[in-house]
Amino acid sequence: MPKYSIAVIPGDGIGVEIVPEALKVLEKIGARFNHQFEFRPGLVGGAAIDATGKALPDETLALCQGSDAVLLGAVGGPKWDTLPAPERPEVASLLALRKGLGLYANIRPAVVYPALVQASTLKPEVVSGVDLVVFRELTGGIYFGEKKREKTADGELAQDNLVYTTREIERIARLAFEAARKRRKKVTSVDKANVLESSRLWRETVTRLSAEYPDVTLEHMYVDNCAMQLIRWPKQFDVVVTENMFGDILTDEAAMLTGSIGMLPSASIGGRVGMYEPSHGSAPDIAGQQKANPLATILSAAMMLRYSFGLEEEAQVIEKAVVEVLNGDSRTGDLMEPGKKLVTTAEMGELVVARL
Ligand code: IPM
Ligand code: MG
Q: Which of these, 124, 248, 265, 331, has the minimum number of CB atoms within 10 Å of its CB?
């Protein structure tokens, strides 16, 4: 029986409620398709700070590096917000894990399911049929450039550097072009080349690489325009490729096309071990109340099967089950509409499992 080891790190807040639902789904898939998934629990984020004093304990990094894939919930919360920036869970665990595992490509698909068209804050004709995917560069740019803070005569000076190299741009752009080949053959490269030098290198590099993909249409778009186009006419997008911080911002926006950020999964790949996590955060406001939507995490598990294990059929079975559940009446709070039935995190997970 094929065996896959998965580092399971729920993290903080709703992470501990949504991850178990994804595990139930994987268990069921394993039983049905005869795979063995070995779940190896680990600590990150605030939970790890409380238990060990470190947001990313060495054992957790080693656990992740030694597994076939990582399933992560969410990190951070008000309890740790007052820590100095380098010690905060987001930076000290999430960014460190991304960097430590060499995960330079963050893939965030935004798909509007017919059953959720009404759940979006945008008009149905604008969102129905949206199917786009953002390739966000994840280990470079302003997140990882040199930072500085110093006293000046009249206050303080703070500095974050936005740095990119040709190689960093090429490798993420290549993944975007390859993905576009299997989709609608269009890449939108998003930058701020009218202002930023790093964006000029980005644009030149992507343009040069596009010669290798004559079957894919490449278009360049400034990030401010992209933010506008995403809510004006999102159906124009197929594959979007962009740098780290632009991708962070645009994917939250893209999430809202789908009705809720609770629907947006993500895959971070590029190293030997991929990491899969919902795009949303730890949602401290609803944590511990069984209110969170587990679907982004369940869909992230599907992405794990697809990208880390090459189990395309199994991934599609999960995605189909999610669609079927949404075609029914059950909704978590984030997707609630009049006439629907409010369900808990665990109930939503069970509904998906029942359809596998
Ligand atoms: C995300 C999150 C993280 C990021 C935070 C928690 C550091 O917003 O995964 O999009 O900015 O990358
Ligand atoms: Mg974000």
A: 124
- pLDDT digit string, tens, across residues 153-187: 999 999 999 999 999 999 999 999 999 999 999 99
Q: Is there a catalytic annotation at residue 192?
A: yes
The catalytic residue among 50, 81, 147, 224 is 224
Q: Which residues pair with 206 in a beta bridge?
A: none
- pLDDT tens digits, residue range 213-240? 999 999 999 999 999 999 999 999 999 9
Binding site membership of 281 for ligand 1 (Cβ less than 6 Å):
yes
329 is catalytic: no
98: Cβ contacts below 8 Å, ≥ 6 apart: 106, 138, 139, 268, 275
Nearest ligand, CA 275: 1
Query: Between 312-327 and 295-307, two packed helices, what is the crossing angle to 10 degrees?
Result: 160
Annotated active-site residue 143? The verdict is: yes
1-107+261-356 has CATH 3.40.718.10 classification: yes
CB atoms within 10 A of CB 80: 20
Report whether CATH 3.40.718.10 matches the domain 131-257: yes
Asked if 1-107+261-356 and 131-257 have one fold, the answer is: yes
Question: Kind of pairing, strands 274-276 and 267-269?
Answer: antiparallel
pTM of the predicted structure, to 2 decimals: 0.95
- Write out the residues surrounding ion ligand 2, Cβ under 5 A: 248
Catalytic residue among 68, 131, 160, 252: 252
Look up 307 and say whether it is catalytic.
no
Tell whether ligand 1 has an atom less than 6 A from the beta carbon of residue 221.
no
Closest by CA position to 320, among listed 293, 278, 355, 350 = 355
Domain-by-domain residue ranges, the chain? 1-107+261-356, 131-257
- Does 50 qualify as catalytic in the annotation? no
DSSP-assigned states of every residue in 177-234: HHHHHTTTSEEEEEE-TTT-HHHHHHHHHHHHHHTT-TTSEEEEEEHHHHHHHHHH-G
Q: Which helix (H) or strand (E) holds 6?
A: strand 3-11
Structure tokens at 56: 């990313």
Distance of CA 37 from the midpoint of ligand 2 (Å): 29
